[in-house]
Structure formats: C-alpha cells, structure tokens
C-alpha cells in the first residue's frame, strides 16, 4: 500500500509505504527526510503524532489514508 500526499511546503509529495510482504514500513517527509518502522502500528502512530491534515493540499486524502491504514491494522492478525 502506497500513498503520495501533496503538501504546501515542497513540490515533492510526502510518501507513505506499508508493504507487509517485504516488511517495509516507511515514509518520506516533505523535506525528503525519511523514517523507517518495525510495524504498521508504529508507522501509523508516528504519522498521527507528527502530521496533520492542514499540512496537505488535499486534507481529505490524509484523512482517508489514516482510515485505510487503521482498517488494515485492525484486519491484520499480527497487529
């Protein structure tokens, strides 16, 4: 699962990747820095604590992404 969210402070989008098959849970901030996580839960917690919908040109995309990620975590037997 990958998401690309356009933000106000950079031409490059923020990127969120949740790849269970390959164990990749990561994101790229608008400043091109990145974060890597050990689980989808850690990824979602970090996003909730560090990003808000006001940072993005389409806040609805951010809200929908959070909902999809949380739904994924609830359905996964591992988390």
Q: Number of DSSP helices?
A: 2
The total tally of domains equals 1
Structural class: alpha+beta
Q: Main beta sheet, described?
A: 4 strands, antiparallel
**Approximately how much helix is present in the residues?**
25-40%
SSE topology string: EEEEHH
Folded structure, characterized:
This is Threonine dehydratase. There is one protein chain. This protein has 79 residues and is α+β, with helices and mostly antiparallel strands. The protein has one domain. 35% of the residues lie in helices and 23% in strands. Strand 1 and strand 2 form a beta hairpin.
Give me the secondary-structure topology.
Layout: E1 2-5, E2 14-19, E3 24-28, E4 34-36, H1 40-50, H2 59-75
Antiparallel strand pairs: 1-2, 2-3, 3-4
Q: What would you say about this model in short?
A:
The protein has 79 residues and is an alpha+beta fold. 35% of the residues lie in helices and 23% in strands. The protein has helices at residues 40-50, 59-75; strands at residues 2-5, 14-19, 24-28, 34-36.
């Amino acid at each position: 699962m990958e998401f690309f969210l356009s933000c106000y402070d950079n031409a490059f989008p923020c990127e969120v990747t949740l790849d269970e098959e390959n164990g990749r849970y990561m994101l790229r901030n608008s400043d091109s820095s990145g974060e890597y996580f050990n689980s989808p839960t850690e990824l979602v917690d970090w996003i909730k604590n560090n990003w808000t919908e006001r940072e993005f040109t389409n806040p609805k995309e951010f809200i929908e992404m959070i909902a999809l990620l949380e739904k994924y975590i609830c359905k996964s037997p591992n988390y």
